[in-house]
Known about the structure:
By secondary structure, the protein is an alpha+beta fold. Helices cover about 45% and strands about 20% of the residues. It has helices at about 1-20, 30-50, and strands spanning about 70-80, 85-90. It has a two-stranded antiparallel ribbon with strand order 1-2.
Amino acid sequence: xxxxxxxxxxxxxxxxxxxxxxxxxxxxxxxxxxxxxxxxxxxxxxxxxxxxxxxxxxxxxxxxxxxxxxxxxxxxxxxxxxxxxxxxxxxxx
Length: 93
């Protein structure tokens, strides 16, 4: 939405500057009209290209998360006051 809005504002700005800065046209002199049409058309096509989705399908800033630390499960024995008990413990480096 923001890219489309920026593209539309850019086209409006360029078109507005051409209207105020263009010299007065003479009958039979179509050079100014051709230049204005080319600039406006280029701004519209450029805005459409700029607002289109990227070809790779996703944002650049998303990276793969780092691999998890190597962990394993091990059974440890401990004294609970009444006897030896075994429990699973996860050990990571």
